[in-house]
Amino acid sequence: MKKRVVVALGHRALGITLPEQKEAVKRTAVSIADLIEEGYQVAITHSNAPQVGMIHTAMNEFGKVHQDYTPAPMSVCSAMSQGYIGYDLQNAIREALLNRGIYRTVSTILTQVTVDPYDEAFYTPTKVLGRYMTAEEANEERRKGNYVIEEPGKGFRRVVSAPNPVGIVEIDAIKALINADQVVIACGGGGIPVMEQDHRLKGASAVIEKDLAAGKMAEAIDADELIILTSVEKVHINMNTPQESELGEISLAEAKRYMEEGHFGVYNMLPKFKASVEFIEKREGRSALITSFDKLKDGLRGKTGTIIR
User: Fold this and answer.
1) Which pairs from 70-74 meet CB under 8 Å and 24+ separation?
2) Pairing state of beta strands 225-230 and 4-9?
3) Which of 15, 63, 105, 297 has its CA 20 to 30 A from that of 4?
């Protein structure tokens, strides 16, 4: 049977602006094509912070100029970013595969991810979003019920919550595609955050850590490996101290200990390790790889990267 992997792409794999993204996905597609050529079944998720911020800002500015239009809520902006990134990514992967004589359908699924309305994260928003605002604009956001923080000397910015993912609404569609040996892009940006209200799904003013959503998807499709591609070749511990060192292959117990010792902060490596640990714990034989996308081939062969078993 083919080995099944979920690949989580970071900002470096996508770029920030429209032209940057067009070029970045071409390079990223080569790494994904390498996996498929070696016989892997691949599901992909990706970050979206710069893109969703751009979309959110554009929609809000448009709404200010045109009174008949309202600002777009975060859930809608998340959906737009999934479509926009997925469009470029799926076409780049399709082209990279066809260049190697491989025909494989690549599909993007607009994916909703449920969150708990009582998640503690809703009481302490932390994710900065959009452009800097004046004090007057910040007060207007507060009147709408949104959270705003001030960055001294720069201005005010909106912040949103980052609740934990609970379930993936479209998981059956994702499973159907991966079981048919297709390439699927799903849970982009951590998924569109929604809350269940009877049969209705209500968009939440939040974002979800894409690495946690990647781990949830990997668990749901019974993947063998979780691959998190980021900006570093290996994870470091004891950062900025004489004891700073790289992590190569480590055990699940060691990964937990490093998390407990606070080596990974809160929003950088910690979600990557949390997702990896939770995924590996669910079934024997699983592993996780954290490395940069240009080192993926070597990482899969155990030559580099941080590997958790």
Assistant:
1) 73/203, 73/205, 74/129, 74/160, 74/193, 74/203, 74/204, 74/205, 74/206, 74/207
2) parallel
3) 15
